[in-house]
Protein: FAD-binding dehydrogenase
Organism: Paracoccus liaowanqingii
Amino acid sequence: MDKIWDVIVVGSGNAALCAALAARAEGSSVLVVEKAPRAMAGGNTQYTAGAMRFAYNGIDDLMPLLADLTDPRLEVTDFGSYTTQRFSDDLLGFNDGRPLSPEQQILIDQSLETMQWLGHQGVKFEPIYSRQSFLKDGRHVFWGGLTLAAAEEGVGLFEAELAALEEKGGEIRFEQAVTGLLVKDGCVTGVTVRNSTGEQVLHARAVILACGGFEASEELRAKYIGPDWAKAKVRGTPHNTGDGLRMAFELGAEMYGFYEGCHATPMDLHMKDYGNLDIPHGERKNYRKISYFLGIMINADAVRFVDEGRDFRNYTYAQFGRAVLEQPGHFAWQIFDAKVDDLLYAEYRFHDAHYVQADTLEDLIPKLEGVNPAGARSTIEAYNQAVMDDVAFDPTIKDGKGTRGLELPKSNWAQKLDTGPFKAYPVTGGITFTYGGVKLGQEGQILRPDGSAIDGLFACGEMVGGVFYNGYPGGSGLTSGAVFGRIAGRGAAAQAKGA
Ligand SMILES: Cc1cc2nc3c(=O)[nH]c(=O)nc-3n(C[C@H](O)[C@H](O)[C@H](O)COP(=O)(O)OP(=O)(O)OC[C@H]3O[C@@H](n4cnc5c(N)ncnc54)[C@H](O)[C@@H]3O)c2cc1C
């Protein structure tokens, strides 16, 4: 008789491993099956900076999570707080008038306890000094509510979770693409996998689908998000092709959430089509180009198309990828002058960053390939004339230093482009992950449109619908994966006990 696992988890990203750890903690035997080889396991999680957003009341909530309590900067850091109310407001800001969804409420309410739980699994965190704080009067001031990242970023998170799972007796198998679900008497009883030896059947009392969204499927992107999206660069893994969603729909799961939405950021126009794991993890985010709030962006018609300073970049970067992708030719140029050169994120100094440079604007403009030069001159001139000279520039706050009289304003951090050398970076839109998914019951089971649960089938991570709508406060994806992973793991373990 073939082995029957209590719980099989499909995928090995953050959500999957949290689910596996939670099921294991309930005494379940757990097998994780991953489509990719070992080096590419961990899905999008491996590509992340490991940043995790959660509600906290002050430094006392942060200290127990930190890897290095001897860091001298801790003495001169203002972490502030990030209340559940602020987390709610941040999510509501992207809901286009919708109230908080039940999934968003769960994410907010369980974010801190889930971080503490991760800490108990051996995951350590570090303050994100480089990208989430500014030095002000000798103190490090955090500004956006996103304060900690896993030590060693997404790779560190993945490796710490995997080590914890293996230490606790969970098993993982690589290069096993799940192709279908086994069903007996209406209950999911296992999976079929494709591996180097062909097709194999694996039996389980409960199955958790944690195998990502459909961001790496050109066909599904075009179908659900729109035809422009066939052209998008994929920032992470090539393996999240919507397999889990397809399998769930075949069993009657409800399509739930914002299928036309996705997380997408401005990316180097000349990056590869997918994320690059061949470079060290600290460099993987460097194809992203999100310091646009310090300059302006213009498209092929030489016009600006977003308010680059609308808000802190944590609240715009996941939307502006779409804005860039939807421009003619799917590209834009980001233009900066020397005054902000030191403030640009490290990704702008990355050895593989593409840019053009000139001492004067007159010499820079002809180098903006694909852009009408006369239009570029007049757009920059109009912008420069509109910049408020009477307000001080301060990147640590929304400084209100905007433009006056432009049809499309820049609301904060507007400075004249007047100091050479000037630099311009060509960008396109890169998709990070998709927002549409399935509807879950309270224990993480996948529901049908009539509200009934598909017996034995659970989901978590990018597959959960209803968490994000028309935008995303940075660092919420990993937290969502951990929160719903933990719920699904416990739910599946309970199902296995009762099966
Ligand atoms: C470049 C980049 C940077 C990011 N930075 C951050 C950040 O700093 N903070 C944050 O919160 N979020 C970030 N995100 C978003 C974050 O990665 C996702 O929200 C999160 O990792 C999703 O976790 P997951 O476990 O659902 O999916 P994944 O981590 O993508 O895991 C899904 C896994 O399923 C596997 N799989 C797919 N199909 C099958 C199949 N048929 N059979 C078996 N296995 C399968 C895949 O190979 C993959 O390993 C970033 C994403 C990218 C791409």
Observations:
- The first strand starts at residue 4 and ends at 10.
